[in-house]
Amino acid sequence: MGFERFMELALYAPGLGYYSGGRRVLGQRPQDGSDFVTAPELTPLFGEVLARQVLQALDATGTDEVWEFGAGTGALAEQLLGELGDRIQRYVIVDLSGSLRDRQHQRLIKAHPSLVHKVIWADSLPEAMSGVIVGNEVLDAMPVHLLSWDGARWQERGVALAPVTTGSTTGPTAGTSSTTTTATQAALHPHPTFTWADRPAPEGVRPPTEHPDSAYPPGTVTETHGQAEAFVTTLAQRMTRGAAFFLDYGFPEAEYYLPQRHGGTLMCHHAHTADPDPLAMVGDKDITAHVNFTGIALAGQDAGWEVLGYCSQGRFLSNCGLGEALARTGQASNAADIQSRVALQMLVAEHEMGELFKVIGFVKGPWFEAIGFAHGDRTHTL
User: Is the confidence at residue 318, as pLDDT, over 80?
Assistant: First the structure.
């Protein structure tokens, strides 16, 4: 099975996948059963600052809807809804996880009882849509295609069932033959063991980079992002008017496919620790890859969007009024405000999330100078 399909099933198979199996997933610490935390859960100031950019985009495009993809616990929806209030007619959440939808609904009812009637949960996209799209850490969770370089050619990396031998801790039962075929393994062993397997890649398939193949050391593994790019293409094609902002960790193409990055970016999260093996504990941990923002920019442009800007998350939040937000928290002395201040510093510090995370913005309709990219725009690097 190609890794793209394997990752899709591991994350989203109904009732079994990581995001569809009812796990808590998001939280502040491993003690609450969660595996990772995102910016809106760290501090409500994140949504307050981001709302300034969303509001400017709503005004500039003359629209009145917000579309959030991958809303997690509903923390960002709570923050944006509270800041935007009557300025929007609808807040549409598109999320594939039924258990997270329940958490989002309960959270928004409690936080904004007078505004929750504006919130709509959607299972699919309409043929035409308008408004401002927000996607915080949604592109990195889309299945990727893996390529491996053996020194002579690029191969497609996939996943196979590992043979089970008698006497191994993962074998079926005593008394069976010394080697069990993979065709019968699933029936004999309820927790199959997976292994990597390569096969020749289709002709011409290689990483989208200017580097010659000979520059890569044998054993190099990297990712391509067909599903994320197709997602952006679909949004751009169906948007009649509006803007979009995606916040995620990643690099422009020239940095993403450096030969020195020979291990790729694929990683997992479990109990708030990084885990390099996506073939273990399948369905019980997150699988993710960094975003190739050049591919995202080109997909959006080819489908009718214009790029508003691209910069680091730290610069983006500063441009959107981070200083004022920090000044307000600095005037308070209670523990919650101090904790929020420390958390926001984590979001902008270069050695934390401020540099690794990037923001890219698009528009369809009248182009405007987005405040989030007023300083430090890196569009020229895409």
Answer: yes
CB 146 within 8 A of CB 287: no
Three-state DSSP string of 153-178: CEEEEEEEECCEECCCCCCCCCCCCC
Does 226 score more than 50 pLDDT?
yes
Task: Say yes or no to pLDDT of 117 above 70.
Answer: yes
Q: How do residues 191-204 score in pLDDT, each as one tens digit?
A: 679 999 999 998 88
Give, in order, the Cα–Cα distances in Å from 123 to each of 82, 84, 357. Answer: 24, 24, 28
pLDDT at 344: 72
Tens of pLDDT, residues 245-289: 999 999 999 999 999 999 999 999 888 788 889 999 999 999 999
277 alpha-carbon distance from chain centroid: 18
Distances (CA, A) of 277 to 153, 194, 233, 263: 24, 11, 30, 12
* Residues 76, 105 contacting (CB under 8 angstroms): no
pLDDT at position 177 is 40
Please write down the HEC assignment for all residues of the chain.
CEHHHHHHHHHHCCCCCCCCCCCCEECCCHHHCEEECCHHHHCCHHHHHHHHHHHHHHHHHCCCEEEEECCCCCHHHHHHHHHHHHHCCEEEEECCCHHHHHHHHHHHHHHCCCCHHHEEEECCCCCCEEEEEEEECCHHHCCCEEEEECCCCEEEEEEEECCEECCCCCCCCCCCCCEECHHHHHHHCCCCCEEEEEEECCCCCCCCCCCCHHHCCCCCEEEECHHHHHHHHHHHHHEEEEEEEEEEEEECHHHHCCCCCCCCCCEEEECCEEECCCCCCCCCCEEECCEEHHHHHHHHHHCCCEEEEEEEHHHHHHHCCHHHHHHHHHCCCCHHHHHHHHHHHHHHCCCCHHHHEEEEEEEECCCCCCHHHCCCCCHHHC
Q: Is residue 178's pLDDT more than 50?
A: no
Q: Model pTM?
A: 0.90
Which residues pair with residue 164 across a beta bridge? Answer: 180
**Cβ proximity of 220 and 198 under 8 Å:** no
